Amino acid sequence: MPRSQKQYKEIRKQKKQLILDSALELFAENGFHSTSMSKVAQKAGVSKGLAYNYFESKQDILDEIIKTGFDSIYSNFDLNHDGILTREEFEHFIRNSFKAIGKNRKFWKLYSAIIMQSDIAESMMEKYGDRSQIIMQMLNQFIKTMGSKDPEGDLMVISSLVKGSLLVVISAPEFFPLKQLEDKVTEACFRLITTK
Amino acid sequence: MPRSQKQYKEIRKQKKQLILDSALELFAENGFHSTSMSKVAQKAGVSKGLAYNYFESKQDILDEIIKTGFDSIYSNFDLNHDGILTREEFEHFIRNSFKAIGKNRKFWKLYSAIIMQSDIAESMMEKYGDRSQIIMQMLNQFIKTMGSKDPEGDLMVISSLVKGSLLVVISAPEFFPLKQLEDKVTEACFRLITTK
Amino acid sequence: MPRSQKQYKEIRKQKKQLILDSALELFAENGFHSTSMSKVAQKAGVSKGLAYNYFESKQDILDEIIKTGFDSIYSNFDLNHDGILTREEFEHFIRNSFKAIGKNRKFWKLYSAIIMQSDIAESMMEKYGDRSQIIMQMLNQFIKTMGSKDPEGDLMVISSLVKGSLLVVISAPEFFPLKQLEDKVTEACFRLITTK
Amino acid sequence: MPRSQKQYKEIRKQKKQLILDSALELFAENGFHSTSMSKVAQKAGVSKGLAYNYFESKQDILDEIIKTGFDSIYSNFDLNHDGILTREEFEHFIRNSFKAIGKNRKFWKLYSAIIMQSDIAESMMEKYGDRSQIIMQMLNQFIKTMGSKDPEGDLMVISSLVKGSLLVVISAPEFFPLKQLEDKVTEACFRLITTK
DNA sequence: AATGAATGAGCTTTCATTCAT
DNA sequence: TATGAATGAAAGCTCATTCAT
Question: Does the keyword DNA-binding apply (chains A, B, C, D) (predicted)?
Fold first, then answer.
């Protein structure tokens, strides 16, 4: 009784995800370079050969992990895709960024380690740079709408604060409780816009 | 007739620095794990063997680089070493942190990449964790003195902002001009302390 | 379709033995330190990488060789494992020691070179020292039973003679024919016990 | 006031001996291959360069050590150089061999480790083989004179006993006290000659 | 689809030896 | 005579990747 075409596809998808998950965990824990394909395969419970059946290379696995994560960040941004950021959408974006970290700390730890490494960061910029810039422009517009006297400067400060807070939450969660920081940062963002 | 003690010492000092500089550049550019000792030696214009004459291991080079950088951060903190942070000392610390980055971007790029890499970060925490905590305590005390209603929360926000701004200055200086951010962040820090 | 568990196991077993044999030959011929893993792999007709697939380290190969040899010595000792050495068992032990050398000269050449090398000898003592002592005690008991006036002294002389004769048989078989020495030594051992 | 030709020669001789002594100690303690020239020079308190001024290579140092030792063994043999071994000369040889070990255990430990390593043993055989054979012939003659029924066999047994006892004294002096073994072995040698 | 034996390039590290001074 | 910085070949070992089965 051979499985149907569809069943095979489903199995493939699950196996692939299994490898991705194993890799993520190990990369986050021990670093990309210190994790061997042997360990990834072993953790996933498959052979090395099979892993190479699903991915072209070790780097390929990393790329796929990063892509997934990048996509998920921006799905929380400009919810109705009208190119304009409302106060609610802005707050939603900030808060959801924190929540995303709470849900998948391993990934974000790996992610932040990865984007710091210039060789990788550059190739990512090429791929995702455009999207990044669109977001910055929307934020800029939003800050202006809020009546900022120095939109450019405020944008810099706010994006520094958001990035910094996400970073400390990721790297030292024992000192920076997620929920508390989420509230403080959200509030601070609004307060930092210089209106007078 | 052999060279004098002094001559040998001078040679050693210069060569060692040469190797450190080469390593810093390559580590920052390509990451620690992706940089081989061969490349370091080649860039320094010496043989691999000589590099090992000056350093016990590749890790040893990294450690020395990190130590130097770490020391330089905290030389700008609590200038008179009385354990108490004044308004002026606080501002001086913030501003000098930015200036330090301006002076040695390469190092700070490496530094920020390194502290994100879990395998390396842990051994650093063991070495420098104590000093880090002392600083946090002094900052906490300072924020209280400034009349904060929520010192703990404000400390988290401020340190997030400072770390985040240093990070963006390091990783995307073309979008975040150093001097401008320095002023904005310094001012924002004072404004963020909730006094009412 | 992959090979069966059994097939893989068989391949592993054979290749492992192949590497062990090559290593033994080279270690015996040129010494442990003067034999590189490259040479071992080359002689076995495999890649260096594969050798490390089967053994954790070069030392690991040596350990396995030594263990095998050590086990084989003492399987000829105290045949019925009752802790007491009879006249027949004693003679059997002596004679079989010679026979063992005849069967695997290479190993014994390596073995005797190894136990002389202080750095390696120490770790062996830790592993096998206990067994060695048990044997000496049994020999001591045996010599007493034979009516020796100076068991301690006789034990020293006899074990010197046995060790020495095995040594010369190993290192200069052209001058010391195995069978002839076996007979002479066996007889001498009994004659050396001072009964009057 | 320049030193005289003779004084210089004396200094050279002392320095050379210093290096030889340091090398011997380290070779015996850690093995030849595990001892670096750096350590030898350091222990002797001279520079590496100077060591190479006195010796052509590391191997050269070892050769000189071995040669010295070899010469010293046979200076105790056939004292009056008449080619004939008397009972007294024989006993003197045995006893002095033990005494030599007592005087310089380090050397003999190294020596016995070295001669076990076949690559070295071979080159030694070429150099010292002749002398060895002369000794064996004299011993053979001596045993005949003593009225042995099986001179060839007795020679094998006796030389095995002597070599073996020297070996155990060197490698496990805590279990085989030198003086005691010297007496027992000397006596046993005479007893082992089969006269009936 | 699946296995793991096998490869080989490249890594970190060591060290006997040389040589400018 | 004396120094130690400098070299370079080779060591032990790792691991991404391939491929016969």
Answer: yes
Domain end position, chosen among C33, C55, C77: C55
Q: What is the mean pLDDT of residues B33-48?
A: 97
Can you read off the two tokens belonging to residue C151?
């068991």
In a shared domain, residues C87 and C177? yes
Select the residue of D118, D136, D159 nearest C29 (Cβ to Cβ): D118
Residues 23-52 in D having a C-beta less than 7 A from any atom of strand E are: 34-38, 48-49, 52
Task: Give how many domains chain C has, as a whole number.
Answer: 2
Residue B184: its chain A contacts at CB < 8 A? 150, 153-154, 156-157
* Token pair listed for B99: 């200036």
Residues B89 and B152 in one domain: yes
C60 is a domain residue:
no
The percentage of residues in chain C with a pLDDT greater than 70, rounded to a whole number, is: 96
**Confidence class for position D62, pLDDT limits 50, 70, 90:** very high
Q: Are the Cβ atoms of B115 and A163 closer than 8 angstroms?
A: no
Report residue C47 as tokens. 């890649």
CA D175/CA D168 separation, integer angstroms:
8
Looking at the complex, does the CB of residue D117 fall below 8 Å from at least one CB of chain C?
A: yes
Asked if residue C113 has pLDDT above 90, the reply is no
Structural domain harbouring C49: 1-55
- Asked if residue C184 and residue C92 are part of one domain, the reply reads yes
From A31-40, C26-35, C113-122, D108-117, the region with the lowest mean pLDDT: C113-122
Q: Are residues D67 and D42 in the same domain?
A: no
pLDDT band at D1 (very low <50, low <70, confident <90, very high): very low
Q: Nearest chain B residue to A166 by CA: give it.
A: B160
Return the higher-pLDDT residue of C188 and D134: C188
Write down how long chain A is. 196
> How confident is chain A (196 residues) per 10-residue block, as mean pLDDT?
74 94 94 95 97 97 90 70 84 90 89 76 75 85 93 96 95 93 96 82
Task: Indicate the residue among C15, C35, C55 that finishes a domain.
Answer: C55
CA atoms within 13 A on the CB side of B186: 19
Question: Are B104 and B133 in the same domain?
Answer: yes
Do the chains contact at D162 and C164, CB–CB below 8 Å?
yes
Six token digits for residue A180? 């508390």
Nearest residue, CB atoms, B109 vs list A112, A118, A159: A118
Same domain, B73 and B49: no
In 10 A of CB C87, how many CB atoms? 11
C94 inside domain: yes
D67-77 b/e (C-beta count within 10 Å ≥ 16 → b): eebbeebeebb
Same domain as D104, residue D51: no
CB of D168 within 8 Å of a chain C CB? The answer is yes
Select from C106, C66, C118 the least CA-distant residue to D111: C118
Q: Are A192 and A154 in contact (CB under 8 A)?
A: yes
**CATH number reported for the structural domain that contains residue D25 in this entry:** 1.10.10.60
pLDDT tens per residue across span A127-140: 777 778 888 888 99
D164, closest residue in chain C (CA to CA): C164
Q: Are residues D110 and D167 in the same domain?
A: yes
The answer to whether the beta carbon of residue A30 comes closer than 7 angstroms to any atom of strand F is no
Q: Whose C1' is closest to the CA of A50: which nucleotide?
A: E2
Three-state DSSP string of chain B:
CCCCHHHHHHHHHHHHHHHHHHHHHHHHHHCCCCCCHHHHHHHHCCCHHHHHHHCCCHHHHHHHHHHHHHHHHHCCCCCCCCCCCCHHHHHHHHHHHHHHHHHCHHHHHHHHHHHHCHHHHHHHHHHHHHHHHHHHHHHHHHHHHCCCCCHHHHHHHHHHHHHHHHHHHHHCCCCCCHHHHHHHHHHHHHHHCCCC
